[in-house]
Amino acid sequence: MDPSRFEALVLKHKDSIYCQMARVCGHREDAEDALANALLLAFKASAKLTSEKAFRSWLCIIAKRVCLRMRSHPSFRATMQYAEEHDLLSSDAKELELVILKRCVNEAIEALPKILVSVYRLCELDEKSVIEAASELGISPAATKSRLLRARKLVRDHLDNSICGQ
Description:
It contains eight helices and no strands. It is mainly α and 166 residues long.
């Protein structure tokens, strides 16, 4: 693969892969290290990639393996055990989980067809009833409910199948 094309693909996908690494590794710094190592390995093996469409999945697999290798290393486990015993991770880990979850949900909502986004936002995020949302959108409550059910299913499916779903 051409190095400039590789770089373009990395720029396109690095943020979502970083989010996965933060979730798998548990910490931002470890995620950064895992992503850097994965990018190096991927660049060295880029000639083996047959389809650019598979780039994100391919890089995710490499990065996840790097992170899992890091986590299984004895020195990493000892450090994590010490940090957990002294409550050094709890607030940062919770904050990171929340950031990752918000990003994943926003990606899932953005992936919805336009006709479903407004219904989902009104009912799920703004906590309006189906009747209120129907009135605001100028559609029947039955159509609103149908769209909401489809939107919920698509969001669930997206989260289950995305890198956020693990």
